Amino acid sequence: MNLAEHLNVIGPAIALFVGSGAVLLIGLVSPARAYSFTLTCLSLIVAVVWLAIHHIAGTESIALGGSVRIDAFSNFFSIVIVVATLSIVLATRTWADTLERSIEFYALLLTAAASMTILTQASDLITIFIAIETTSISQFILVAIVKDDKGAEAGLKYLLTGAVAAAVLLYGFVFLFGVSGVVSLDQILNFAESAPEEYRLVLLLSLMFIVAGLGYKMALAPFHGWAPDVYQGAPSAIGSFLSVASKATGFAVALRLIYSGLGGGDFYLATDLSRIFVILAVASMIIGNLGALRQTDAKRLLGYSSIAQAGNIAVGLAALTAGSVSGASAVTFFVATYLFTNLGAFLSVHFIRSKLGSSELTDFAGLIKRSPLVAVVLSISLLSLTGIPPTAGFIAKVYIFNAAITGGDLWLVALVGVAVLNTAISAYYYLRWLRMMWLDEPSEDSVLRPDGWKQTVLVSMMAGILLIGILPNPLINAAKTAVESLV
Q1: What is the pTM of this model?
Q2: Any idea where the domains of the chain sit in the sequence?
């Protein structure tokens, strides 16, 4: 394999890294912030086109000594990450121009997205850890990009908890390397398939550390403590990035580890791993939904909501480790629908906060009269988060719950029962918010109009939610194809 072929495999990430460097360099010689926005969009467009070419061509290859692997799975999640980043950049341009550090904002977003792209391709423990840390460092700074007390507090909390999570994850990797003697996921799989019973305790311990470290990235309880505070203190644009791109990356790494490193549901510790995910899913749904019931700030409510939604996605992880053939594709499909649903909600909140300087739920009273487009998009997003047809969220929940039930495990059946009950709980605070927008009287009569790019992105998110809800098969088939490349 020559150099050009290696570079082609990681080409989308290189495009984003080069774009990040170009933004910083041009920012040193030109104060015109429009260049930063244009270069950022150009880099993201190049990356997504490159990924689309890989996807259409069905490219599957291993590069850089086996440390990265390009396949339908990595392309699927990378496209989700890059599209989410591009949507955020387009929708928040006006706000970003007001930042004192707008150049750094764009450069850090590109760096984080590039690292996440590498992370979806990573095929050994060293590459996974380095990519996670590169992503995390960028996110720590982005959370505190605005100079205010809440942003600084959120950034510090995210940094401290992230450092602990990184150490825990590294402990898991060290245990796994220590017992197997290899770092490649393929070689770890060979070891796991033939490992004698006396290695059971050490392997289980390593898996618990790894699940805890990745659980932090996915905002699964009890590793969720950072999420509400960080989502509330960080700019809404960064909150949307964390809720979609970061969460998608966490689940992508978990899926690749489970399949490429442990053989999916055939691993002899798969039942133990399934029980762990059942417990994490239940805890996440209960803590997330009960926490959201008491919130009066929209960003903090969405923070707790993201914990509950992570619990819903973890149902699929529990199902696939229990042997369900559709568990992995259900997780992949759910993450893709989450792109449209959560970006629609977060970017709507970002717009209101940028106009009113507050994100209290009372600020959304009578929003249908002040900003009809934003109110409709946010309403559709909340209905999707609840799981009400004909939205993408309804299909995603049906798909992932069905994967758990067909697993034939009593634990999974009980888990689905808990998930359905929690869906009913979540309906209370989602629909309460919706009622305020449509039935309450606004505190002011001024009209709030989003700019052109923001309107385009919001309409695109709403269209995606409804289109997937009505015609889900193309995305379901794409999710199945992505998972088949893992197997």
Answers
A1: 0.93
A2: 269-487
